[in-house]
């Protein structure tokens, strides 16, 4: 079994589209507007394996999204150099937490958030 895709509903489609493509650098595979749902669907590539589906819906309900909230905890990306990625994102204006060290693997990681406060983790390969 493999992961097919990860779906994210955003509150402001243009802001989130810019974040995921320009700040995080994900590539657009397909973008469609579904008139019957008044919803955009943007398929984004992450390397060669996974796809993020970014959705816009009219008036989506709020939900807790802190890394310790019940439900989806966070979305994690693996990177070669976590310190370089943190510096790159901060130079693009993103607030990033301090680096942490995984007590079991010794690998470094940090958290930031997308425009809707979805916690995003960047973890050293």
From TrEMBL:
InterPro entries: Fosfomycin_Res_Enzymes (IPR051332), Glyas_Bleomycin-R_OHBP_Dase (IPR029068), Glyas_Fos-R_dOase_dom (IPR004360), VOC_core (IPR037523), YwkD-like_dom (IPR037478). The keyword Metal-binding applies. The keyword Metal-binding applies. Residues 2-125 form the VOC domain. Keywords: Metal-binding. GO terms for molecular function: metal ion binding. It comes from the Bacteria. PANTHER family: FOSFOMYCIN RESISTANCE PROTEIN FOSX, LYASE, PUTATIVE-RELATED-RELATED. This is VOC family protein. The gene is gloA.
